[in-house]
Amino acid sequence: EAGLLIPSSPSSSVSVILTQDDLKKIAAYKAVEYVESGMVLGLGTGSTAKHAVDRIAELLRQGKLKNIVGIPTSMKTHEQAVSLGIPLSDLDSHPVIDLAIDGADEVDPYLNLVKGRGGSLLREKMVESVCKKFVVIVDESKLVNYLGGSGLAMPVEIIRFCWKFTAVRLQKLFQESGCVAKLRTFGEKEEPFVTDNGNYIVDLYFEKSIGDLKVASDAILHIAGVVEHGMFLDMATTVIVAGELGLTVKNK
Ligand code: 5RP
């Protein structure tokens, strides 16, 4: 990870090196300042959200936060929260969430997101679409001019049945954007990655912009076999970006 030299204080000649993970932690800790006792919290997934969950647990242990209920967005976050003693529930019991904190893979200038490179996009979208406030935490490498613009994957969760057929339909849908659809795999044997919901993920790579995001979203969801996609449009209420020049808080 590239290091970043930051003076430890304005008058100091001593510098500390901040890694990308430090930046993620700084953004996460800032987001946890939005948490109040008694809240129902959506707990995100990924290396940035993990810092937020750690911090919430720390404040609970210290008695600075009380009566928190967490709704985890993945099995991994569920396990982390259980190991830290955070009280948990689910959407059946808590259909409205006060605040969700989660990372993202891409953030565009309008605070639209790509999520799901960690594979948890479906549960994340279920939780984050019913929260009053959705605070997104990223380091500045996640900022893009348009979604798909990082050249990295835009994930789509699909059912396993005839997955190649669905992948081909997705690729054809974005032919004009130079789309390539790839089944997500893991390990040396390249076994299909299976989500917490028992589905596969097809990652879409684009050469060019996909144009109107709402149109693209509707078209993807219209394909039978698609469960959900990783575009989170008009959902983030706040994005906290940790970067070379410090923290930036962008509000919708
Ligand atoms: C998981 C996600 C993550 O929030 C996203 O991939 C960002 O991860 P990280 O904080 O590790 O960079 O959407 O499905």
Automatic annotation (TrEMBL):
Enzymatic class: isomerase
Gene Ontology MF terms: ribose-5-phosphate isomerase activity
An individual GO BP term: pentose-phosphate shunt, non-oxidative branch
EC number: 5.3.1.6
Pathway: Carbohydrate degradation; pentose phosphate pathway; D-ribose 5-phosphate from D-ribulose 5-phosphate (non-oxidative stage): step 1/1
Catalytic activity annotation: aldehydo-D-ribose 5-phosphate = D-ribulose 5-phosphate
Record's keyword annotation contains Isomerase: yes
One Pfam family, short name: Rib_5-P_isom_A
Top-level taxon in the UniProt lineage: Eukaryota
Keywords assigned: Isomerase
Keyword Isomerase in annotation: yes
PANTHER family reported in the protein's UniProt record: RIBOSE-5-PHOSPHATE ISOMERASE 2-RELATED, RIBOSE-5-PHOSPHATE ISOMERASE 3, CHLOROPLASTIC-RELATED
Record-stated family: Belongs to the ribose 5-phosphate isomerase family.
Stated name of the protein: ribose-5-phosphate isomerase
